[in-house]
């Protein structure tokens, strides 16, 4: 078995293995290790990321063990493998406190790796034109859908739901475009942006705890340099994809983050614009048209209701961010 061959490179004789996704939980003697499999293209980043983090003074990540040849990666069949100590969920706090600690450390990661740089007028205008152009096309797509639905004598349950929600999604697009325009105008005045080292795949599963309760990031496979919102938005989007909620937890996490890494006006504008953008609705409409799933109509009618809940949850967060900005 390939895993046993790889573990020999670390001089480990396992007594038991458990596969959890792309991670092997390795039991050897009294020790427990995590052997992670990743793509070659992603694993290459790790060679530079960990020394970079050490240099910047950020140590809240699970370290890698070297193999007997001194290398930190083992290549087998176009896959890379690396070994870490296993930090399990036994010491994992309740979810809300887990997220608080993760957002605090994420802010520290961004703060310690932050760099300010100039952004010229052409790049600012190109980003605005490209993004707003795409969003306007999506709005036209929504318009074509509503026209088709309203021309029918009998709409399907999914189409009926879409007609009920159409104006709400339209307003979200209008807000996103309006905020993006304000971002462009503000950026043209400052022409400065900050980049950070992104974790790349922020989730509670990728922030683990030792037996003393200290939290550490794992899975830097998709780490890269970018804007801070690129770490924040996917986590928020996933969290808000649920039943209607008041958003207090999300705002608390954002406040913790911004306490340790305050966002500049342009960064907050861009984050609000992208957060408000309801592109998930376009994806849902495209999937609905394929009509390949069993019980297609029932499943997608539930999905569009869930999409509406997500829209309202995001709207709630946007309103709280607007109130915070005004105060």
Can you tell me about this structure?
The structure is a single chain. By secondary structure, the protein is an alpha+beta fold. It folds into two domains: 2-86, Phosphorylase Kinase, domain 1 (2-Layer Sandwich), CATH 3.30.200.20; 95-326, Aminoglycoside phosphotransferase (APH), C-terminal lobe (Aminoglycoside 3'-phosphotransferase, Chain: A, domain 2). Helices cover 57% and strands 15% of the residues. The protein has ten helices and ten strands. It has helices at residues 2-8, 40-56, 95-113, 121-150, 157-190, 229-239, 248-260, 265-276, 279-290, 296-326; strands at 16-20, 23-28, 31-39, 74-76, 79-85, 115-118, 192-198, 207-209, 215-217, 224-226. Strands 1-2-3-5-4 form a five-stranded antiparallel sheet. The chain has a three-stranded antiparallel sheet with strand order 6-7-10. β1 (16-20) and β2 (23-28) form a beta hairpin. α5 (157-190) runs antiparallel to α8 and α6 (229-239) packs parallel to α8. The radius of gyration is 23 Å and the shape is globular. The mean pLDDT is 93. This is Spore coat protein YsxE. Keywords: Capsid protein, Virion. Residues 80-236 form the Aminoglycoside phosphotransferase domain.
